[in-house]
Specification:
The complex is a heterodimer of chains A (526) and B (314). Chain A is of the alpha/beta class and 526 residues long. Chain A has two domains: 225 residues, LarA, C-terminal domain (2-enoyl-CoA Hydratase, Chain A, domain 1), CATH 3.90.226.30; 211 residues, 3-Layer(aba) Sandwich (Rossmann fold). Chain A has 21 helices and 20 strands. Chain A starts with 5 loop residues before the first strand and ends with a strand. A seven-stranded mixed beta sheet of chain B has the order 1-7-6-2-5-3-4, with helices on both faces. Chain B starts with a helix and ends in a 9-residue tail after the last helix. The chains are: A alpha/beta (526), B alpha/beta (314).
Chain lengths: 526, 314
């Protein structure tokens, strides 16, 4: 039986609690009375995944069964989410592999010859062959990759983009030509968090900068409360308009999957347990991990963390018409992640783990750490933020000014040039975005190397716009002071120091909430 | 210097200390109060206790109680025992029913009993608390002749009914758990039901001072040899046709009257009982701290209240 998430109130019986901080974690003794938001325990996984996939494909929502949509001579395109989800990457076999194989089996039975598979990476970096292989599996990879039929979407290949039209708000809808011109576009999604999926899949994953700029901007993100709630997110409203327009031109068969909260494999599974329930073995694992991390060189630590493969279990799969599917998907995500919380607090504490969507097999640089903390974690709410307007946010992360030059070249310049001038998302957008978005060198690296698009660091900064607008103080514990200063924030050595620093904003005796994540959770704040 | 050997060693020691303190190494782990409702009922392994009533185990218990438990107990607290004469008027087995305020209650009652009764009395102990590990199970069975009772529903190895049928008297705390503030809680029906079902008398027991000497959360008596009192009451028999619920209520009333007697005198408590004015053993409805405050005072030592027939002249 899986227990629901709940709000712990720290008392004299509460042991130190795990707080993630990059490639490591610490045990923090929170002040008495601190509210700790715990995610629900992992739901039981679907026992027969293949049967569940077959059932979803043969009994879709508001659509005909997939086999009836397949016929000889058709153009079939299968698009799938890239390596930004799930986090950490899933143990083999990835759920996308199993779904894609099932779709291909049906296509083969129907005599479909013209099949192409596209990773819907939008402006994310191109995945390496090994990364694609991990997602789609050896059989699919061998059958399609070397034939040039399995590839990354290229948002700067203008010959292979189609401008489908404008929404009623004048938003450009430009997506991958092959996808747009197929008789059937099957999209295979992993809905790790509530912001994923729905019309965010095709209209964003397969889009170009021209299309993305309509919703990936400071104004939209500032008005998305939150972007984990697609009904209240202007980002999603725009994507929904685009998706509805696309569905008039394209035949899209959406397949969405949801996962449970089995984030950490053994022997790190103690990180997902409630601390007071740690067995002797869990405590020993924690002590061993802490000592190992203390003595390990940073390269070993990086390898240790980024080598993790999550033992995620499938909790649901739905297929068919995008919106009908997504309603069921969101319900499944909420079953796994929603936690009821009463009221806001003065201070919100969050530990930033080693991994976010944009540093898989890479480095979490200061901009990505900000995006994780003030973007993804801060927005993990429904209703209202966990912290009151004008409150303070305390984050844990080393925030080392280290960048992966292969993956994040434009981030280096964004950090050195743009943030040195302004940290205001609106100012940054107005003054610098076009320059970075159209920079030929960044475009070249995006298209031919494994670099994120030149404009990507701007998007990460916009992701944090709502939080920056909402709170008055952002303090990083255990962070590089110079780096944090560059980001426009402040650094503290300990939680006590951070609370002392925040007292100017929230007073000497603030109410505190700690978001105990990962695993993922959404605070339903009333 | 980060990563240097002294720093790593010191960090390791700090981590171990933090873990030992946070996870209460060597002590029973505690669940934060706000998380208690989310604790899953665990399938406790059932440790058999029949062996602890075998002849060798009884011999071992005699040594453990008289050579270890009693000297330590007497060195830490002072006791005043009254009412034992009633045991001369009953034949075993009986059910001893006492209110529960401290872990001292069990040794207090057991070590107050005459040897003949002590050797043939088994103590009901919560399966989820005293029988969750083999060593705790063995320890409590050797020292106190405990047998498990299930507080949360489930199966247990030996039933109290079997023990009564075999001639063992039982010591049961009908509240099912220790009081959080020293005052008496409601009585569950288990002891009364057993008495009705097996036709055995219930001997009510009142005691004072155990909460003051060693309340919940404390695992050793407070220093200063606190005074404890224990008083055995007249055996109660279930009236034909009386339900377990009604009998439990009567037992609780008898314990309350005994407490009143222990606090004042037999005559005063009898008169109050006759007029229905026995103080409520649940305590007054006042602020929690006042309830704890009232119970944290040990009873006066017996010597101090003894009335002397002759005035001391020197």
């Amino acid at each position: 039986m899986s227990r629901p998430g709940f709000v712990l109130e720290v008392d004299d019986r509460t042991p130190p609690l795990v707080v993630h901080e990059g490639e490591g974690f610490r045990l923090e003794q929170f002040p008495l009375g601190t509210r700790v938001i715990y995610p629900p325990e992992s739901l039981p996984a679907v026992p027969d995944v293949d049967a569940a996939i077959q059932h979803a494909l043969l009994n879709p929502e508001d659509a005909d069964p997939l086999p009836t949509l397949l016929f000889a001579g058709m153009r079939l395109t299968i698009a799938f989410d890239d390596l930004s989800i799930p986090l950490p990457p899933m143990q083999r076999p990835d759920i996308r592999q199993r779904v894609i194989e099932a779709v291909l089996n049906m296509a083969a039975d129907a005599g479909v010859d013209d099949v192409e598979l596209i990773a819907a990476n939008a402006l994310h970096r191109r995945m390496t062959a090994a990364e694609i292989k991990h997602i789609v599996g050896e059989r699919v990879f061998r059958s399609f990759f070397h034939q040039g039929l399995l590839y990354n979407h290229d948002a700067e290949d203008h010959t292979n983009l189609t401008h489908v039209g404008l929404t009623d708000r004048g938003e450009d809808v430009e997506i991958n030509r092959r996808a747009a011109e197929s008789d059937l576009l099957v999209y295979v999604n992993v809905n790790l968090v509530a912001m994923d999926g729905g019309h965010k899949s095709v209209p964003i994953g397969l889009a170009s900068y021209k299309s993305l700029r309509h919703h990936h901007n400071a104004k939209t993100m500032l008005a998305s409360h939150s972007f984990m709630d697609h009904e209240k997110s202007h980002l999603h409203h725009s994507a929904w308009r685009m998706g509805r327009m696309l569905s008039e031109h394209l035949n899209i068969f959406q397949i969405e999957t949801t996962l449970n909260n089995d984030v950490f494999p053994a022997p790190y599974d103690f990180l997902t347990k409630r601390e007071w329930e740690w067995s002797i073995k869990d405590q020993a694992s924690m002590l061993a991990a802490r000592r190992g991390l203390a003595v390990a060189p940073s390269r070993v630590k990086h390898k240790m963390f980024h080598g993790m493969r999550a033992p995620y279990g499938l909790t649901g799969i739905h297929a068919g018409e995008t919106e009908a599917v997504h309603d069921k998907t969101i319900a499944a995500v909420h079953r796994q992640q929603l936690v009821e919380v009463r009221g806001q607090s003065d201070v919100l504490v969050m530990g930033i783990p080693f991994l976010g969507p944009y540093n898989v097999n890479s480095t979490m640089n200061p901009i990505l750490a900000t995006c994780m903390g003030l973007g993804y974690f801060f927005n993990s709410y429904r209703g209202q933020p966990l912290v009151r307007r004008g409150g303070a946010v305390i984050l844990y992360h080393p925030v080392k000014p280290a960048f992966n030059q292969l993956h994040h070249p434009s981030y280096v310049d964004f950090y050195d040039e743009v943030l040195a001038e302004s940290t205001d998302p609106a100012v940054v957008e107005e003054k610098f975005e076009q320059q970075y978005a159209n920079d030929p060198w960044y475009i070249h690296l995006y298209r031919t190397s494994h670099a994120y698009h030149g404009v990507h660091p701007f998007y990460m900064w916009y992701w944090a716009a709502h939080a920056m607008d909402h709170v008055d103080d952002v303090i990083w514990v255990g962070a590089d002071r110079n780096a944090v200063q560059r980001l426009g924030f402040r650094a503290a050595s300990t939680l006590t120091d951070a609370l002392e620093m925040a007292s100017g904003t929230v007073g000497p005796d603030p109410t505190i909430s700690y978001l105990h994540s990962p695993p993922h959770l959404i605070a339903d704040v009333h | 210097m980060p990563g240097s050997r002294p720093g790593v060693l010191r960090g390791g020691v700090d981590d171990v200390r933090a873990a030992a303190r946070g996870w209460r190494w060597g002590r029973r782990p505690l669940v934060p109060r706000s998380a208690e409702e989310f604790v899953l009922p665990t399938e406790q392994p059932v440790f058999p206790t029949e062996w602890s009533r075998s002849r060798p185990a009884r011999a071992l218990r005699e040594v453990a109680q008289k050579a270890c438990l009693e000297p330590v107990f007497r060195s830490q607290v002072r006791t005043n025992v009254e009412g034992l004469e009633i045991l001369a008027r009953v034949e075993g087995p009986v059910i001893f029913a006492a209110h529960h305020a401290s872990h001292l209650d069990t040794p207090l009652v057991l070590l107050s009993l005459p040897d003949r009764w002590r050797r043939t009395t088994a103590v009901a102990a919560a399966a989820d608390y005293f029988f969750d590990t083999w060593w705790r199970s063995v320890g409590s069975a050797v020292f106190f002749n405990t047998f498990p009772i299930e507080r949360r529903g489930g199966t247990i190895a030996s039933t109290p009914g079997e023990l009564l049928a075999e001639g063992w008297s039982l010591l049961i705390f009908p509240e099912g758990t220790r009081s959080t503030d020293g005052w008496m809680g409601p009585f569950r029906m288990g002891a009364a039901w057993l008495a009705v079902e097996y036709g055995v008398p219930v001997v009510p027991i009142a005691h004072r001072g155990t909460f003051a000497a060693m309340p919940r959360g404390q695992n050793w008596p407070s220093p200063g040899r606190r005074q404890l009192t224990v008083r055995f009451g007249e055996p109660l028999h279930a009236i034909p046709g009386e339900s377990g619920r009604d009998f439990a209520s009567r037992v609780r009333g008898a314990v309350g009257t005994l407490q009143d007697e222990d606090r004042t005198t037999w005559w005063e408590s009898r008169r109050r009982a006759a007029q229905g004015e026995t103080p409520d053993p649940s305590g007054p409805e006042v602020a929690p701290w006042r309830r704890v405050w009232a119970q944290s005072e040990s009873p006066a030592a017996a010597d101090a209240t003894r009335h002397r027939a002759w005035r001391r002249t020197s």
